Structure formats: structure tokens, C-alpha cells
Amino acid sequence: MRLTRFSDIGLRVLIYLERAGERSQPVTVAEISSQFDIPLNHLVKVVGQLAKLGWIKATRGRNGGLRLLADPATLTIGQVLRKLEGEEDELVDCEGTNCALKLDCQLRGMLRAGMRAFYEAMDGYTLAQATSGATGEQVIRMHKMFWSGMPAASGAPAAIE
């Protein structure tokens, strides 16, 4: 299983916003785009979905920007991935194929069980946990570097993984 780029970007946005703290200026889409080298058009779609889900507030205009609304202590990575990846239990599309095993396939149930186990494991981790320790410190450095005018550190996204 591999997460979609959409979910990857969504997690990075939430992590970045969680460590924005009490900044006087809200985080902008352009800031996140430059920090993570994400094309603006992809980022705008993800931000729109995160706002629609009520996890962030996106304000337009000259003084606009992004702020985290969700409680990082209760928002689980499992919740985020279910919403961004889609809540389907299926890793393969058995119905959309002409597979001779479709009626009696054991693999389909195994894959469902694996997917459920993955989400249950991700439900054990919160956004606050994902931004603790070295990851949180790196994000804070990214915020400071951005405001000091320094370019984003090469390899910064890798440190967040």
C-alpha cells in the first residue's frame, strides 16, 4: 500500500500548521509550497479539503492564511488518512474486473483485514505525537528560516517523515 500524494501533502500541511504556534502572521499557502516544494495547484486542492473537513481555517485576502482548528491531541493520523485516502476497505477493485476468482476469493478478505489493521494502528497516533520531538523542532526551524528569508533547507521534508 502506498499513500496518495494528496494524503502526503495533507499530513505535511497539518504538521506544519500544528507547529505554527502563536505566530502573529498566519501561515500562507505560498509558504508551505516553498517549504515543501509542492506545486501551488496541488496544495490549494488539499488545503480546500482540509478546510472543508473543519481541520483548518483558510482565510483569503491580503491578511489571510491558514490556521489549525483541529485539536492535535485528539486528531488521529488514522482519521486524517481515512478522509484523505477515502474510507474504502478495498485495496483492489474486484467488482470492476472480470476475475475468475471473484466469487470465492480469499485474498480479498485478507486485504480488507490488513487495511483495517493499518487504520487501527494509525488511530493510535495523534497529530500532536507526529509533531513531537525532532520532527516538531525541525518544523519550528522551518518556520524561523522562512521568516528570516532563508530558503527552505534541502532535505527538510525528509526530516519530517
From TrEMBL:
Name the record gives this protein: RrF2 family transcriptional regulator
InterPro entries: Tscrpt_reg_Rrf2, WH-like_DNA-bd_sf, WH_DNA-bd_sf
Lineage of producing organism: Bacteria, Pseudomonadati, Pseudomonadota, Betaproteobacteria, Burkholderiales
Domain of life: Bacteria
Entry-linked SUPFAM superfamilies: Winged helix' DNA-binding domain
Keywords, sorted A to Z: DNA-binding
Organism: Massilia aerilata
